[in-house]
Amino acid sequence: MKIQNKFIRLRFEHISMFCFICLISITGCKKFVEVPLPVSTISGNAAFITDQSSAAVLNNIYGSLASSGTFDSYQGIGIYSGLYADELTPATSNQVMTAFYGDAVQSANTSIYWTRFYQQIATTNVAIEQIPLQAKLTHKNQWLGEAYFLRAFMYSYLVNLYGDVPLAITSDYKVTNALARAPKSDVYKQIIADLKQAQSLLTDDYMDTRGSTTTDKGRPNKLTATALLARTYLYTADYADAEAQASVLISNPNLKLTALAQTFLANSDETIWALAIEPTDLTPYEKDYAAYNDGTPTVIPAGKKLSTYVYVSLSPQMIKAFETGDQRFTTWSRPVTTTDAPVTTYNLVNKYKSAVNGVEYIMIFRQAEQYLIRAEARAMQNNLNGAKADLDVVRTRAGLSGVTVSTQANMLAAVLHERQVEMFTELGARLFDLRRSGTIDAVMGAVAPSKGSSWQSFMQLWPISSQDILTDPNLKQTPGYQP
Q1: Less CB within 10 Å around the terminal CB: N or C of the chain?
Q2: Is the overall model pTM greater than 0.90, yes or no?
Q3: CA dist., res. 324 & res. 331, Å (int)
């Protein structure tokens, strides 16, 4: 694969330059690296010889994920997958957004995530190989556990966006250059193995770059690995283990559902793990605020359009999904109305509300999802009372009464609906749910005409990088798309 060739070769042949750039110039390093690094050149396995330098290599990954727009902003997975599915409607005529909304993407539109994730996987592979060899590391388990978690985390998105993907778990570019797609079952096995390793190495405490306990939730810990493991078990239909992992988090006294308005605040009680935004970033706050909200006035002045302020609004299908009295609709969305004819009211996504640095982080895992994971896992095991109890916790927080369904099929439908209205626009959750539940063709087939598109089943997965296909003779394009 071209990506592996380019970036893994870099880490072996030019590791000193990589570390130098990482430590002094990549956005996101400063927050995590709170003390200066040695001036001397770091090369080879010396990139991991101290706790400070080991943390710095990992910090580069966090900084890149937080600053690249992968998980927030107008080009983030949340906004593009929301357009692609049934959550969002574009406010602009931007060609890329139009392609996602019209379910007409090509590799030029979707390979951005492929490239970014494999770049970072290359780094984690080096870390996983090198950190165990270092005898002087005081916090070896922390850094190694983070690396295992990060590799699993990035593969979890690759497999859900692209299906079968190359499984690169070595830093030997001669191997990774010629990889074919691995079956997604094998990818999931690796994800689970990595997460179990992470759980065995990490603790429930959150750590800073010195390996000291902190209240900041910007670095993953054992709870973070458990959250992704619960999700992974659910996605792979291992319902007993999904319930068990979610139960660990639900029983943790330091995690709880917050008031809706406080959910997305930095280090909220509901946060399991979130990415911090670097103060030196050009837009030093959660970029979903700018993409979805951006202080758009409640009444848009004459001569202005919605596109003057934001990129998207909630789709009619998403608005209709909320029940009467659902406080998530009034708290996590807000109406704005145009002045020019035809007067139109739009509902903007309002989960992120601040343009002040440090007020909000990019939410990756939160406690409400764990209740929904356990509810679905219990329903799948025909524990309908248990599923109802978990659903009702989430619904009560939203100001709704409990569910009243009495069959397994209806309970599962209730869980899917609750996930839709609880986790809308959150990092592809809706698109992934539609696919894994087997409802995507029916839902998107019904929605497509209103989007001016025609849905076909192959569209549930996205095309991969065409450049990598040209470089790697064993790599094939996602079925249904042009090479």
Answers
A1: C
A2: yes
A3: 13
Structure tokens of 74? 């107008």
Place of tokens 């690759």: 158
Question: Does residue 152 come out as left (phi exceeding 0), alpha (psi in the -120 to 50 range) or beta?
Answer: alpha
114, part of any domain: yes
Residue 288: inside a domain, yes or no? no
Considering the domain boundaries, does residue 264 fall inside one? yes
Q: How many CB atoms lie within 10 A of CB 41?
A: 11
Euclidean distance between CA atoms 322 and 330, whole angstroms: 10
353-379 tens-digit pLDDT: 999 999 999 999 999 999 999 999 999
Q: Which residues of 170-206 are buried (b: 16+ CB within 10 A; e: fewer)?
A: bbebeebbbbebbebeebbebbbebbebbbebbeeeb
Average pLDDT over residues 79-96: 96
Q: Are strands 299-300 and 333-338 parallel, antiparallel or unpaired?
A: parallel
Give the Cα separation of 17 and 197 in Å (integer): 30
First-to-final CA distance of the chain: 14
What single-letter amino acid sits at 235? Y
Q: Range of 32's domain?
A: 2-279+362-471
Q: Angle between the 51-67 and 15-24 helix axes, to the nearest 10 degrees?
A: 70
When pLDDT is cut at 50, 70 and 90, the band that residue 280 belongs to is: confident
**Is residue 345 a contact partner of residue 335, using CB atoms and an 8 Å limit?**
yes
pLDDT band for position 283 (cuts 50, 70, 90)? confident
Q: Determine what percent of the chain is predicted with pLDDT higher than 90.
A: 87
CATH number of the domain to which 98 belongs: 1.25.40.390
Domain tally, the chain? 1
Question: With contact defined as beta carbons under 8 Å apart, do 257 and 270 qualify?
Answer: yes
**Are 285 and 356 contacting, i.e. CB atoms less than 8 angstroms apart?**
yes
pLDDT confidence of residue 279 = 87
Maximum distance among all alpha carbons in the chain?
70
Q: Cis before residue 342, ω within 30 degrees of 0?
A: yes
